[in-house]
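Researcher: Please translate sequence to structure tokens.
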Amino acid sequence: MKAPSLARIALAFVAVAFVGCAERRFTEGEYDDVNEVRLLDDKFNESDITALADEMIGSMAAHPIFVDAKLPPVVQVETVRNKTTEHIDTKSITDTIRTALIKTGKVRFANKEDRATLDNEVDYQQQSGRVRRDTQKPRDGSIGTDYILSGDLISNVQEVGNRKLVFYRLTLNLTNLTTGLIEWSEEKPLRKRFKKRGVGA
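Model: Translation complete:
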């Protein structure tokens, strides 16, 4: 029998090594503490969302607009403008803020995102003939918005040598829909430090 050449042996070794690398997957995991800060890379993450949202929640909940109101004002959330260089879903920030404020009982929120769905359901109840009249919802039953919540998320990156600073600032404004005046505004800065690891570290 002819002995295999060194070239064939080398190719077989490379093929086995390649298959072994290609099949490596994360197959074992465990639940992690969501309150623990984990900075696996220099990108925007869930810990940043929490840090930014907490400041806004506390400031807004303590403002006289809500504290002194006889009825909880109605707020409509607009998209926070992402002025960073990253692809960041800013809706996750406003969702966190909205959920926490609803739990305080001091704020009500208009559901702008599902407005078309709500309108379609009211039309169905009124026109289909399949819904009892005493349970049908009127077309003019919605409560008007009192304030618009909007804002910006910006960032700045400084990198020198193996060190990197990433800075974020979230600014939110609450605008009175009747007067057009900003009656509440808050900003939260956030800065993170990173250091590149050496080769093999």
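Researcher: Any highlights?
Model: The chain has a mean pLDDT of 87.
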